[in-house]
Every structure is written in structure tokens, then in C-alpha cells.
Amino acid sequence: MMKMLLLLLGCCGLVLSDQNQSAPRDQRVFPVLSINYDYVQMPFEVSLWILLASLMKLGFHLIPRLSTVVPESCLLIVVGLLVGGLIRVMGKRPPVLDSQLFFLCLLPPIILDAGYFLPLRPFTENAGSILTFAVLGTLWNTFFTGALLYICRPAALDLLPCLLFGSIVSAVDPVAVLAVFEEIHINELLHILVFGESLLNDAVTVVLYHLFEEFAHTGEVTAGDVFLGVVCFFVVALGGVLVGGVYGVLAAFTSRFTAHTRVIEPLFVFLYSYMAYLSAEVFHLSGIMALIACGVVMRPYVEANISHKSYTTIKYFLKMWSSVSETLIFIFLGVSTVAGPHAWNWTFVTITILLCLLSRVLGVVGLTFIINKYRMVKLSGKDQFIVAYGGLRGAIAFSLAFLLSNDDFPMKDMFLTAIITVIFFTVFVQGMTIRPLVDLLAVKKRKESKCSINEEIHTQFLEHLLAGIEGVCGHYGHHHWRDKLNRFNKRYIKRCLIGGERSQEPQLVSFYNKMELKQAMMLLESNSSSNLSTVTAAAPRQRSRKTLNISKEREEEIRKILRANLQKTRQRLRSYSRHTLMPDAEDDWSETRLKKQREEMERRMSHFLTVPAPPVRKLESGERLRSGSFFFSERVSAGDESIRRKPSVVKFSLEEKKPHRGPEHLLEEDEELIHHRP
Amino acid sequence: MGSTNSTLLKIPNVEVLMQETGFSPAHIIRLHDRFKALDKEGRGHLCPQDFGEIKELAMNPIGDRIIGAFFSPGKETVDFHTFVKILAHFRPVDKDRPKEPNSPEPINSRSNKLKFAFQLYDQDKDGKISRDELLKVLRAMLGMQVTEEQLESIADRTIQEADLDRDDAISFEEFRKSLEKVNIDHKMSIRFLR
Fold first, then answer.
1. Which of A379, B69, B79, B102 has the fewest Cβ atoms nearer than 10 Å?
2. Which of B54, B157, B179 sits opposite A458 (nearest CB)?
3. Which residue of chain B has the CA closest to A512?
4. What angle do CA A156, A157, A162 make, to 5 degrees?
5. Is A308 exposed, middle or buried, given 0-12, 13-18 or 19+ CB atoms closer than 10 A?
6. Could you say which DSSP state residue A581 is in?
7. Distance between CA atoms of residues A263 and A582, nearest Å
8. B144 touches chain A (CB under 8 A)
9. How far, in whole angstroms, is CA B115 from its chain's centroid?
10. C-alpha to C-alpha distance for A168 and A235, rounded to whole angstroms
11. In this predicted model, which residue has the larger pLDDT, A431 or B93?
């Protein structure tokens, strides 16, 4: 705005200076409105693209049946094609998916989102199978495709370019897999197998790509080079993981001290992860593995340290960025298809597609045969089919091909065309047909399971049991090492990386707290007042224990409603400040509430109200407060004693109150539940 | 091969054992070696002290319950047969076993694995996990880092979630139901015992 003004002033200055010079005098009218597009061109166009992508996403879901039949990725590619065609018709050259833009800006958010929310338990349980598919599977695909292409000679190519092409086209793409598998809700095992494979094969792809590119450049291969290639693979993979791990630990450590600057907590998470990616890319290590390692390492500690709001922010920002990135990638893929120079070679393209399919099927079947010997839960034929069919190729292959230099590879255009065709084939044909096939083969879908505290407790119990039995057998197996790792984690690492009291909190308790919080949020989002009445109608259980005569669930709900309402009233009073957030409800709700309760009780005492309470639903306030102290036991217990000592004789029953009130009224309603026994 | 046969012959009723548990001869021998290593005094049976010497069990929060599971009620020693039978619970499930209608369920079936785990919770063997038993387990697993009230809330919530017949305790059926989504075959099997 200021700059616009300055510009206008500058124009004025120019006009004035013009007038100071000699004739010919141009009587220019003062330019009230002038256009300066070049100034904003770059950000403007970027924003326009992102806006287009988001509007497209919006549009797809408004058309009723479309999103169920066609996966989003296909639709976006079609949109990209249309846009590219439009630009071409307008006479300009459509932009091509710049590899640097892709690898540095578009890919990291998707991978970070995947890595941060990676379900760790299924991943580690199937790590062996995933690694086998990723490493051996990709190697097999590369050499099979490359060798057969060389033998069939559709385009008179040497061995090395064939192998290079094989390495580019054989990698399963995480973006495409995510886009398609997200929509079909397949069971967890298959999802993690295909998805894990697509993430981990990056290391192999990077090594093979650089290897073959180097060899093609120098022109000859020796046995020593091959050996170096193998060494390089380990360096790339393990180095990437190490870099990611280091940054993850740094992020966890930093988050320990962010108690007073909650606003920028999410920023640390994003920055450290991005730095991990970039640092790995500096050394040609696997950036994807660094990003995954960083996310996995930092998550448990960061989540224990940051506030609930920051956690939500991180979650939603990651989802937002990865969603936008994915959309942009597919649109750009479509646009690049229209733009790029094409060299269509029927035989080459068809043979490539056939070989890709064949090598994938053979690879999966062969490898499954081997790994089933070591698995406890074997992969059936149906599983193998889905794993093979889910091997989609995507934008990574395209970008890698785009990076090839034209001098070393005169057939680059042919490669690009073939790769685009393979991508289109896998995304359109396989992507569209996988959903009906999953239904047809009756593959197990992911069960929408509510997390259950029973499962958590029993699973932990079983883990301890198995570790013990392994001890009895004298066998140092899976459970033994996991147990040792957990113990090490608890004793040393958690103490360093988690600040404050939370470092001592066992996993079960934090799980329980999360569940309670979730339930409370759910209760508030649904119509809370009507819920309250229905819950009261559900018969409260008569317990034999003397202290509690109300169901715990009911109690928790009341507590949460109170807490949320307190939050609301406080929110209305705060003024907006960019640098500070309102303090978290979790932190000091207890104090405010205790104060309120005390005032209420004093008020009631002075009025001597007594209402007969038919249902035996007594609630001892002190007891309730104590049992509700899931975040902060110490602070609440201080207030306990003072309330307990008040000798009031007031009893209320909930049924006297009408349930049809808004949340503000609920506050008073629930306050009246507080009554003491003499 | 000759030595293994001779070792096998030294174990009484080894054929019956192999048939009941489904272990291969190699496994029986391995377990026999382990049994002998644990039985330091060479008495031919194990007592609780022998188990107590295993480091991993000492550090395990439910170590004493596991030890208790090996000893049938009333008996103070564990002989080799019982040892192998208990460990047979943790064999991975054979998926290709033909389902004979009249034969009893193998020891390592899903149901028997769950029963074993259930017995570890249910110390007084009344067929239900009462609130107190659950509290004891939680206390053992969570140590001293948790207050009594937190434990009680967790225990209450657990029972509430699982208890379908509202008797304030978890029966075996309810236990099984709450674990229906967990892959017990995977979670309760030790690979080397295959």
C-alpha cells in the first residue's frame, strides 16, 4: 500500500521533472490510477495457481457422484490438461513442472505430513516386509525393466540409459499412493505395506539414479564402481535417517522450553523438519528418509511438550499444506503434459507399460514368497494383488526424468513422454479401477475403530507378558528389544526432552487424558444441552462404594462442559494481541472455577435453600475435583481442602431443571450440582 | 542327529508332549536345554526361586504374575511337561491345520491364548476381572508415577467401556470382545517357537 503511494508520488515527480525540462511539453494528466503488473507478477501468479487448485478441490466435492467414481488425482490431471490447453490456445507457453520447485517446495509438506502421522506400531511390526519390498523390489524392477528394454531394443538404446530409465520409472510414488489409497480405506496392513514401500524406496531410487547418471556421463563401469554404489546406498539411507534423527532430537529439545511462547511452537516443528530435508539434500542423501525420521523421532516428545492448541495447529497446517501440494502437483502434471516437448514412440511406450506391470507383479509375488516364511501373519493372494496393483507411479518419476541433461541423454524427450504415459496409465486406469476391485475381492477395509482404553491397557499388558515369556525362554526377540528401548526411553531420553511434570507421565495416563479430552470435545460439538438430558435419563448406576454414586462418565461430561463454558466467557473478554495467546484453558481453569464454586457455595449457604433430592446422585465436590485432576494434580488439591471444610447442607437434583437452555445457562445449572454431605 | 534322538529319549513321554503342544523335536530339545539351564541344582523341576533369577522377569512389572502362571494351584514345582505346555500357548498359530471336528482345540489357538492372558489378570480365579484386580494390574504397570485417584478413574472407565452385562467386572467374554480388533495371533506369539 505504501509502495503504491510511493509509486504514485514517483510518477508525480517524473511529471514534475518533465515539466522542468524544455519543450516539447507533454501536458500529462495526473495518473490517478495506474497499472503496474510486473511488480506483483510472481506472487500474484503463484497465488492464482494455488487458488485455482483449491477451487478445483472444492468443486469436485460439490458434484455429487463424481468423487466416488473417479479419484481426485485423475480429475486434477484432467483440469491441468484443460488449463494447459487453454494457455496454449492463448498463445503463451504453459509452465512446466520445474524440478527444483517440485523437490524443494511441493514434495516436503506431503512427506512431512506422512511421516509425522505415520502409524508407528504397524510400521515397525512390518518393517522387514516393507524394507524388502522397498529395496529388493525396486532393484528388481529397475534391472528387469532396464535389461528387457535393452534386449527388446525398441529404440536402439545402450544399456546404461535403459537402466537409468528403468530406475526412474520403477519407483512407487508416495504422492500417488497416498492420493488413491486415502480414498479406498483399505485395511491397515496393506496400507502401511504399500505406503511404507513408497517412502523407503526413495533411498534406492536416489542412489540408482545418481549412479547411472554418473556412469552414463563417464561412459564406463568397473566392478569397483558397482561396489561403491552399494556402499553409497547404505550411506544415503542411513545418513538420511541420521540427519533426520538429529534434527528430530533438536526439535524435541527446543519444544521443552516453549512454555512461554506457545504461538511459535508449530513453527519449530515445521522449520526443523524442513531443515532436515534440505540438509540431507545438500549431501545427496535421501531427503525423504530424513524427513520421515525427523517426524517420527520428534513426535512423542513434542506432543508431550506443546499445548493442545499448537498440536491442532500443526495437524491442520500439515494437512492443509500437503493437500495443496498434492493438488498442485497433479495439476502441474497435466499442464506439463500439454507443454513439454514430446517424442512419441509407440513401441517404446507400450513395451514400457507392459514391462512395468510385469515386473511389478513378478516382483511382488516372488518377494512375498520369500517374506512369508518369516512373517507370522502371512500375506494372502488377495493381499499380494492389492500390493502389486497399488504400485502407482507419479510426479517424482517425471521430475527425475526432467532433471536429465539433454547432452548425455538425447532421448530425454522420448523418456519424458513414456514416463508421462506410464503415470497417466497407472493413475487413471489403476487408480480408477482399484476401488471396485477392492470391493469385488472383498478385501478387508479399515475398521473405523474408536480408540479404546481397554485395548490400550491390554495391549501394554500383553507386551509385558511377551517380554517376560521371552525372558523365560531365554530368547532375545522382538519384545525383549522393544521393552529395553522403552525402558531406556523412559529413564534417560524422556527426562531430557520433555519439560516439566509431563516427563514422568506414563503413556497410559496420557492416552487416558487424550481420550477424556476427545470425549469432552465431542460432547460439546454435538448439541450439548440435549445430550445432558439424555444422559441423565440413562440410569445412573447404584454403586456399592460409598464415595461415588454417579457414573464417572457423567461426571466427566459435566466437568468438561463447565470447563468449556468457562473458556468461552473468558474468550469474550480478551483483547486481541498478536504476540500472546490467551493462556490455555488447561492451565488455569481450575483456579477460576474453584473461585466461582466457592462464591456460589457461600451464596447458597446464606440462602438456606433445600430441595429434596429424589435420585441418589450425590456428588462430593472435593472428590470430583481430585479425580478430575488429570493434567495437574498439585494445583487442584490445594483448593480441595478449603472447599471440603465448608459445612453446607445443600442438595440439588438435576431433574428439576429444564434441559432446553443454551450453554450459558448450563453453567449455572451445573454449578448447582455442587453439594456437600455434612 | 543321533545326539538329538538320544536327548529326546531321555525326556519321558516326549511323544505325547509333542502331539499335545505341536512343537517339533528341535524345539523340544531347545526348551529342554533352557529348562536345564534354569534348573541350576539339577533337580528335574523348577521352583519359584529359579524363575526369580531371570533378570528380565525381575524387571518386568507383571513378572511375579507370569511366574505364578507356571505353577498350577497347589503345586510348588514345575516339571518339564508343564513348562512346555505353558510355553505352547505362545506358539504362532498354524493357519493350515485341518479343522478336525472332534479334536480339542490346540493350546496355541486364539481362544486359549486369551484365556491364558485372562488368568493372569484374574488371580482369584472367579472367572471375572473385578475392579480391585484391575487396579492391582494398573498399579503394577504404572508404578508410583500415578496417583490413586487417577488409577481409579482409569479403572472405572475401563470397566465401564468393557462391561456389557453391568456387573461391574469384566468376564472372559467381555475381555475377548474388547480385544476383537487386536491381532492376538500376532501379539501373543513368539516367532522362535514356531
1. B102
2. B179
3. B154
4. 140
5. middle
6. P
7. 10
8. no
9. 9
10. 20
11. A431
Question: For chain B, how big is the Rg over CA atoms in Å?
Answer: 19
| Statement: residue A630 has pLDDT above 60 | no
Count of A-B CB contacts under 8 Å: 152
**How many whole angstroms separate alpha carbon B192 and alpha carbon B90?**
10
List the end-to-end C-alpha distance of chain A, in Å, as a whole number.
69
Determine whether A232 is exposed, middle or buried from the number of CB atoms within 10 Å of its CB (0-12, 13-18, 19+). Answer: buried
Instruction: Write the secondary structure of A220-249 as one string of H (helix), E (strand) and C (coil).
Output: CCCHHHHHHHHHHHHHHHHHHHHHHHHHHH
pLDDT for A67 equals 72
- Of residues A266 and A10, more confidence is placed in A266
CA dist B190 and B194 (Å) reads 7
| 3-state class (DSSP) for residue A47 | helix
Give tens-digit pLDDT for A302-360. 888 888 888 889 999 999 999 889 888 998 888 888 877 777 888 888 888 999 999 99
Residue B2 to chain A, least CA–CA distance (Å): 25
Cα maximum dimension of chain B: 62
Q: Cα distance from A484 to chain B (closest Cα, Å)?
A: 10
Specify the higher pLDDT residue, A142 or A171: A142
Structural contact between residues B181 and A459, judged by C-beta atoms closer than 8 angstroms: no
- A625 vs B contacts (CB less than 8 Å): none
Confidence at A108, pLDDT banded by 50, 70, 90: very high
User: Is the pLDDT reported for residue A1 higher than 70?
Assistant: no
pLDDT value, residue A568? 53
Residue B134 — very low, low, confident or very high, per pLDDT cuts 50/70/90?
A: confident
Are the beta carbons of A618 and A549 closer than 8 angstroms? yes
CA–CA distance, A327 with A76 (Å, rounded to integer): 7
Minimal Cβ distance to B190: which of A463, A473, A630: A473
Cell of A409: 541423454
Predicted confidence (pLDDT) per residue in A420-446, tens digit: 999 999 989 988 888 888 888 887 777
Closest CA to A285 of A244, A224, A225: A244
- pLDDT tens digits for B105-120? 777 788 888 888 888 8
